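A protein record in our archive is deliberately plain, so that people and models can read it alike. The record that follows is passed on verbatim for readers who wish to inspect the format.
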Amino acid sequence: MWFEILPGAVIITTLLSVPIYAMYGLDKLMIGNAFRRNMDERFSRVMYQRDFRLTDNPYKMNGLEQIPDEEVKKEEKDPNEDSDDPAIVKKREKERKLREKQLKKEEKLREKQLKEEEKQKKN
């Protein structure tokens, strides 16, 4: 009868749905986020690249506050910087952050030295 097909239909439906639900866990393990962004259309790819460039995390919601003003962008831009290649831009941004961290460390060391000198003068 017609109901003899039900066990086979259930098995096939279950097996076809396993990859769909397994991707949730795999994406969570591989990229740290359970949901991928749709890259079917050009606009979606451009928005992915923009979010990655601005915050290094394309899955974080970004508003207008993440986009720097034009004036600030011109001031920060290095005259030797010709390339718009995302890899080069990201590398330069990391180098700039590293330099800032080093400057902060040097400043803290100077403050410690000044405090030690003041203590020695008082004693």
In short: The longest helix spans residues 86-122.
